[in-house]
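Chapter review: from sequence to fold.
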Amino acid sequence: MRVAVTGANGRLGRALIAALGEAPFTGPAGPIGWTRADFDLDVPTSIDPLLDRDHPEVVINAAAWTDVDGCARDPKLALHRNAESVHVLAEATAKRGIDLVQISTNEVFDGRRDHDRGYRPDDLATPGNPYGASKWAGEIEASAAYRRREANLGIVRTAWLYGPPGNDFPTKILAAAERARAGGQPLMVVGDEFGSPTFTHDVADTIVELLGSHDWHGVYHVVNAGIASRADWARELLRQEGMEIGIEEVPAATWPRDSTPPAWGVLEPTQIPAHEPLRPWQEALADYLPRLRRQRAAAATR
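The token string follows.
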């Protein structure tokens, strides 16, 4: 099976390329990675020559403008990059009978529901910010393109992603903790935003399992098991790192932002055929930390 990944240099894109490279169904040539130089969200018609050149059977669209504050400052550009580009891509793949996996986000929900359960795939999308609105519009565009087509469309929503190459929540929290400790201050972390910290490698492995099942179509919520506040996540990270510093929980309003993330950004995980539920987020974090230590050590020597 020839599988192409857009956004191949991004956080999830890198994990997908690695996971697909180990999948038996991709063959000796492995996956096809399309970076921004190949498929530019600002020029989405660049997808046609790529499809005709590489002839993939599946495209995983991991390319997106994920700067949520940037999206809030320029909603029109957000719609162009996260919805209009999906329209062009999905029309092109559906016309050729190519299966599509569209990556989406928990931010298609505004997070205002009761904290009794996570959002399910059949819950009504109610975006609460321009980023979420643009990604929801992208889902609509992909669904419209595949409405009367024989090919498969899978929409995979995920949340609170972290993983290589760094500059993620764990990286930023460790750096902030070091600064706070050096200044003799507690580490202030948001305590009123909830979600499921999710390791990119686990999401990528699940998508590979989904493709390998040959029986997929619809909306999937793919997150590590468990729920945490931002402060819970930071507390567990520092515990695993053996870093002793006090944490002061503060409301998200402490740091005004252009975008408003969902306070309850929890997705209820979807059971994937022939795949075990994703492991608890604490276990996934423990798997990531050795890589993060190596990255931080290398950065310190530069």
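Two observations follow directly from the output. The first strand starts at residue 3 and ends at 6. The longest helix spans residues 75-95.
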